[in-house]
Design a protein that fits this description.
Oligomer: single chain
Radius of gyration: 12 Å
CATH architecture: 2-Layer Sandwich
Shape: globular
Strand order of the largest sheet: 4-1-3-2-5
Low-confidence stretches: none
Order of helices and strands: EHEEHEE
Strand content: 35-45%
Largest sheet: 5 strands, mixed
Mean pLDDT: 95
CATH topology: Alpha-Beta Plaits
CATH class: Alpha Beta
Distance between the termini: 26 Å
Helix content: 25-40%
Length: 91
Amino acid sequence: MNRTVKIRVTGRVQGVYFRRFTKNKAQDLGVKGSVQNMEDGRVEIIVQAEADTLESFIQWCHKGPITARVDHVELIELQVNEVEFSSFEII
């Protein structure tokens, strides 16, 4: 069953290629969605995938790339039909 989740990552996550690594990880796992920097310094990721795949991606978000420091990860469940993605994009 597909899930759609908004993930907001706090820490040293801008200026460290977090979005690029996130896109690479999403593509490796077959996750669809988007990632973007927020004005407050966080990174926001919206993802859709099968529940098991999404869990692996969320676990990665708690660590992030080696260049980053993740202090907090906020998860917000969305309705599956709220947004629809065909690929994974950096905004």
